[in-house]
Specification:
Shape: globular
Helix content: 25-40%
Strand order of the largest sheet: 2-8-7-6-5-3-4
Strand content: 15-25%
Largest sheet: 7 strands, mixed
Number of strands: 12
């Protein structure tokens, strides 16, 4: 029987010592990623390389994310956190601009706008986000998948409403990129933390920007790495910024990006369709099993399962070697390529005890 790329990846790249269902908090690092980070750290310790890391590896990670996002690498900026990317977008808005976001949205998506103090923040239930867009809305900022409970936004409706009213869109794909297909070109901006479903070391994150939106985005992090010719821009003001979204790069953490290149390579080998079917299939199995125990999950087809009112069971599961998380009163489990039916059954066994 032929082994699938997903099964091969699970067997060769991962060896968790727990029943790990906490990817929504932090994804497991593949073996090849650990080797890449360890190799660079060793070279830095031994003094055997000329610098702290390779810009070529950063660009390889950029290209790897671009493939997942469905855009060219010239649309992708590299950085270290979602909050920093969102802060860049926040800095581009004029005073008085209205930012529309879902109630309970993840802090990093809304705080950079809110702390400015001169923007109009408006929050509505996720289900009514599309209907709440109005002519005065400048930007709709939201996650494709909600961190607290795994709900998937009505992406088509929100994009259509924003386009109708001339509002730009900022999509956070941190809880979705890697299992849910992403068309980054359909949004003015996307921001994605790499350390969850993209299985990258923390410190790798990605911003995508349309050509139109690039014209109004300030290059707040301008330095030699964001120059058109980095190695000839190391002293004095940068004379020419990169002509691509690279001009919005933050100075990156090389250890994270050397690892990110390998993690994104692995996801490409598995393929998005196989990963989507696998992760959502396991999530459906947990929803069905939990319902049989009298615990109704937040409905949907997400790879993230939230069981309302069971957040206080997280310590019990951890004591039994099952890693999940408690968010907004929910018990939250998230599925990825390294999970199996046995992991679902283990959760159900503990919950039934």
């Amino acid at each position: 029987m032929e082994t699938s790329a997903l099964d091969q990846a699970r067997a060769t790249e991962f060896a968790p010592e727990t029943t790990y269902l906490n990817t929504s908090t932090c994804g497991l690092l593949p073996r090849r990623t650990v080797e890449a980070v360890t190799s660079l750290a060793g070279e830095n310790a031994a003094g055997t390389r000329a610098g702290a890391g390779s810009l070529e590896r950063v660009d390889a990670a950029r290209a790897g994310f671009a493939r997942i996002a469905g855009v060219g690498a010239d649309r992708v900026a590299a950085g270290g956190s979602v909050a920093a990317h969102v802060g860049l977008v926040a800095a581009s808005l004029p005073a008085g601009a209205e930012v529309l976001a879902p109630e309970g949205e993840f802090s990093s998506v809304v705080s950079p706008f809110a702390v400015r103090g001169d923007l109009k923040m408006r929050y509505v239930p996720l289900a009514g986000l599309a209907e709440a867009v109005r002519p005065g809305t400048s930007l709709v900022a939201f996650s494709a998948v909600q961190s607290a409970d795994g709900r998937v936004a009505d992406l088509d409706a929100i994009r259509a409403a924003a386009a109708e009213h001339g509002a730009r869109t900022l999509l956070d794909a941190t809880q979705s990129a890697g299992w849910l297909p992403l068309d980054a070109g359909a949004y003015d901006y996307t921001v994605t933390g790499g350390f969850k479903f993209l299985l990258c070391p923390r410190g790798a994150s990605f911003l995508t920007v349309t050509e139109e939106a690039q014209a109004t985005l300030p290059a707040l992090y301008a330095g030699w790495v964001s120059a058109e010719d980095p190695w000839n821009s190391t002293y004095g003001p940068v004379e020419q910024l990169a002509s691509t979204a690279r001009r919005f790069d933050e100075p990156v953490a090389f250890l994270s990006y050397h690892g990110a290149e390998r993690s994104l390579e692995l996801l490409a080998e598995v393929g998005p369709d196989a990963l989507y079917a696998h992760a959502t299939g396991l999530a459906a199995r947990l929803r069905e099993g939990a319902a049989s125990l009298g615990h109704e999950a937040v409905p949907g087809t997400s790879a993230i399962v939230a069981l309302p009112g069971l957040g206080d069971r997280e310590p019990d599961l951890a004591a039994a070697g099952v890693m999940v998380s408690a968010r907004a009163g929910n018990l939250r489990a998230a599925f990825h390529l390294y999970n199996t039916d046995a992991d679902v059954d283990r959760v159900l066994d503990v919950l039934s005890g």
